[in-house]
Amino acid sequence: MSGEEKMRAKKEQAKGKAKEAAGRTVGNEGLTAKGRAEQAKGDARQAKEKVKDTLKD
User: pTM of the prediction?
Assistant: First the structure.
C-alpha cells in the first residue's frame, strides 16, 4: 500500500468518525450519515490498496 494512499484512507476514516460522532451528539442524522459514508469511502480505498499490494507480491 503506497504511503500516500494509506494516509488518505486513514484520514477519510478519521474524518468520517468525527462527523458521525458530532452528528450523534447534536442529533443530526444527515451529518451522521455523511460520516458513515466517508468512513466507508476510506475503508474501500484501504481495501483497494491492500488488494494491489497482494497482487504485487
Answer: 0.82
The separation between CA 4 and the C-alpha centre of its own chain, rounded to angstroms, equals: 14
Q: For 33, which DSSP code?
A: H
Q: Residue 41 — pLDDT band, cuts 50, 70, 90? A: very high
Compute the distance between CA of residue 25 and CA of residue 18 in angstroms, rounded to an integer. 10
Total length of the chain: 57
| pLDDT of res. 1 | 52
Task: Please count the other Cβ atoms lying within 10 Å of the Cβ belonging to residue 45.
Answer: 19
Of 42, 36, 53, 49, the C-alpha closest to 10 is 42
C-alpha cell at 29: 442524522
